[in-house]
Amino acid sequence: MSDLGKPDPVRTCIVAEDESLLRHALVAELKRAWPALQVVAECEDGASAVEALAEHTPDIAFLDIRMPGLTGLEVAALAADASPRTQIVFVTAYDQYAIDAFERGAIDYLLKPVKADRLEATVARLQARDALPDAAALAALLDKLGALPNAAGAVEPLTWLTASAGRETRLVLVDDVAYFRADHKYTTVVTAEGEALLRTPLRELLPRLDPANFKQIHRSTIVNLKAIAGIVRDDSGRGTVRLKHRPETLTVSQPFMALFRHM
Predict the structure, then answer these.
(1) Sheet holding 108-111: strands in order across?
(2) Counting runs of H as helices and runs of E as strands, what totals does the chain give?
(3) What is the DSSP letter of 80?
(4) For the chain, does the N or the C end have fewer beta carbons within 10 angstroms?
(5) What are the Cα distances from residue 182, in Å, to 7, 62, 120, 187, 189?
(6) Which domains does the chain have, with CATH numbers?
(7) Cα–Cα distance between 91 and 109 in angstroms, integer?
(8) How far is CA 214 from CA 16, 134, 179, 205, in A?
(9) What pLDDT digit, counting tens, does each position of 12-59 carry?
(10) Radius of gyration of the chain (CA)
(11) How far is Cα 156 from Cα 210, in angstroms, rounded to an integer?
């Protein structure tokens, strides 16, 4: 209750965690520790978290750092545009070096497995509205964490893909791919020469691609930056990508336009 005896305004949050058991457990613990907090979205990967931030502009986002596709760090960076008022709480299994960085950056965090007393302390800080650092502090922290070894659970980027085109199996050089498109449980691989089907979901593919060259621009699309001829922005904040060697254009969801701020 506020000093005037009126109920405090309802606050909202999203929870982004790719492991369903951990996600459900955190949501359940949040409901116990803060019954008035509304969980407006539960997200299993970074792309859906970015879209949920843009759609709901929640007060708080609980972000797992290591998620398929966009990491929690990348989601937090995009949140500055998609939902700048959102307070970020990272959920992490990082070591003490990273924990020190969180604390110096005044960013709240929860260690896995999340303990009830630690969550209650985080809730108390969020309710007091003292957990939101300025943009410069958040940017500095993200840069530092992004430089940590294996910060995003990095693996050696793929060089070749084995994809199917009808009865033919093709070896596709990853650098030759213009974009990847989600196709139910599989992924369509599009090159200048045509299309083939990859038996790997998009969300599992993105962590295996070189992040310097491949960016997710929509829930269902990953583009090779080297294949882009130009980007057109419309008044709604969305964008359209023109490709060098393909006639079609690709839609960039508004939350992902921040990736092209300097292009």
Answers:
(1) 38-43, 12-16, 60-64, 87-92, 108-111
(2) 7, 15
(3) H
(4) N
(5) 45, 26, 39, 5, 9
(6) 12-146 (3.40.50.2300), 160-260 (2.40.50.1020)
(7) 6
(8) 22, 29, 8, 11
(9) 999 999 999 999 999 999 999 999 999 999 999 888 999 999 999 999
(10) 20
(11) 8
Give all strands (DSSP E) within the chain, no chain letters. 12-16, 38-43, 60-64, 87-92, 108-111, 160-165, 168-173, 177-183, 186-191, 195-198, 214-218, 221-224, 228-233, 239-243, 249-252
Tokens 């500095």, located at residue: 140
SS3 content of the chain, % helix, strand, coil (to 5): 35, 30, 35
Q: How far apart are the first and last CA of the chain?
A: 47
pTM flag (> 0.85): no
Can you read off the two tokens belonging to residue 141?
A: 């922290």
Cα separation, 109 vs 126, whole angstroms: 11
**Token code pair at residue 33:** 């520790």
pLDDT, tens digit, 9 for 90 and up, residues 136-190? 666 666 666 655 444 444 567 889 999 998 888 989 999 999 999 998 889 999 9
CA distances from 140 to 52, 72, 143, 194 (A): 24, 15, 5, 42
Residue whose C-alpha is closest to residue 46's, from 21, 79, 71: 71
Residue positions counted in the chain: 263
